[in-house]
Amino acid sequence: MKYVITGSLGHISKPLTERLVKDGHTVTVITSSNDRVAAIEALGAKAAVGSVTDAAFLGASFAGADAVYLMIPPNPAVTDWLAYQQEVADHYVMALAANGIKYVVQLSSIGAHLGKGAGPVDGLAYLEKQLGQLEGLNAVLLRPSFFYYNLFGMIPLIKGMGIMGGNYGDTDEKLVLVDTGDIADAAYTALAHLDFTGISVQYVSSDERHPKEIAAVLSEAIGRPGIPWVVVADEQAEQGMLMSGMPPTIAKGYTELGAAIRTGIMQEDYWKNKPAVQGKVTLEDFAKAFAAAYHA
Q1: Whole-Å CA distances, 54 to 4, 10, 33
Q2: Which of 104, 137, 161, 268 is 20 to 30 Å from 241 at the Cα level?
Q3: Beta pairing partners, 47
Q4: What pLDDT was estimated at residue 130?
Q5: Sign (positive/negative) of CA torsion 177, 179, 184, 190?
Q6: How many Cβ atoms are within 10 Å of 49's Cβ, its own excluded?
């Protein structure tokens, strides 16, 4: 089988590529960097270097594929995050249609059921909708939850102010967490078998904890027990991200996402359709990696 993997050598795309190559499949990895070519080829895959905003490049790269793994790569340089995501989504859909590709696994997100009001997830919801309009397409829309590795962003806050926090965490709403390895497992299972039909949603999660419990577990792991989870207003959260150097469009998006978690709308569909089996990586497992990064 021939697979195309977007996302270069990211946290999900790399292990996915490794496993498909090991199974004997032909794998093409799309990357925007010539510097990644050698590493991609070392995995036994072919590198296709170009931009996901280049429709002609994507059309050529998808040619002959039996299945494609789609993710919209982050781009901190954009001034309009949603417009960028929609452009990439439209080009993906055109490339799929032009090549008659029948199987897709999309990296979407928890909160995509909203369509609007979840910051960066809005563009992923747009891609879900566009895929649903392709006649004859079979697609698994993976909706993972809050990535564990985003919690590494708390380390400067701990070291600088002795706190963790965000613009959510002052309600009873637990935060649904996920490890990228568990996402890669779900994507691999779907792509390796290609036994799915129609359009289906699959939530992926590894653990479910309240933000205050997250703070307790992580602070214990680093040897500083009792670090509190502090909830700040949306305006404070956005200003803090801007002061850290985050581009305005991305800071605004993450502030909106945090507000959606706080109100419960971000995760409401997950609680109604949560997976029967969660991933392998618990918060306590991740805490070991967090402690190592904190003390590095």
Answers
A1: 16, 20, 14
A2: 268
A3: 29
A4: 98
A5: negative
A6: 17
CA dihedral 204, 210, 212, 213 (to 10 degrees): -70
Q: Which stretches does DSSP call E strand in 38-121?
A: 46-49, 67-70, 103-107
**By the 8 A CB rule, do 215 and 227 touch?**
yes
Per the CB < 8 A criterion, the answer to whether 30 and 5 are in contact is yes
Residues of the chain falling short of pLDDT 70 = none
Q: Which long-range contacts (CB under 8 A, 24 or more apart) does 77-81 make?
A: 77/247, 78/247, 78/249, 79/247, 79/248, 79/249, 80/249, 81/120, 81/123, 81/249, 81/250, 81/253
- Note the Cα 194 to chain centre separation in Å: 21
The sheet that has 138-144: what strands, in order across it? Answer: 46-49, 26-31, 2-5, 67-70, 103-107, 138-144, 199-204
Q: At what angle do helices 81-99 and 121-132 cross, to 10 degrees?
A: 20
Q: From residue 293, how far is each of 5, 177, 215, 285 by CA, in Å?
A: 29, 18, 16, 14
Residue 103, phi then psi, degrees to nearest 5? -130, 130
**Residues counted in the chain:** 296
- At residue 84's C-alpha, the angle toward residues 203 and 250, to 5°, is 75
Token pair belonging to 225? 């027990």
What pLDDT does 76 receive?
86
Q: Domains along the chain?
A: 2-145+178-204 (3.40.50.720)
Cβ neighbours for 156, distance < 8 A, ≥ 6 positions apart: 244
Compute the distance between CA of residue 165 and CA of residue 66 in angstroms, rounded to an integer.
44
Give dist(CA 57, CA 135) in Å, integer: 23
Tokens of 255: 């502030």
CA atoms of 257 and 117, how far apart (whole Å): 7
- Strand, coil or helix: 53: coil
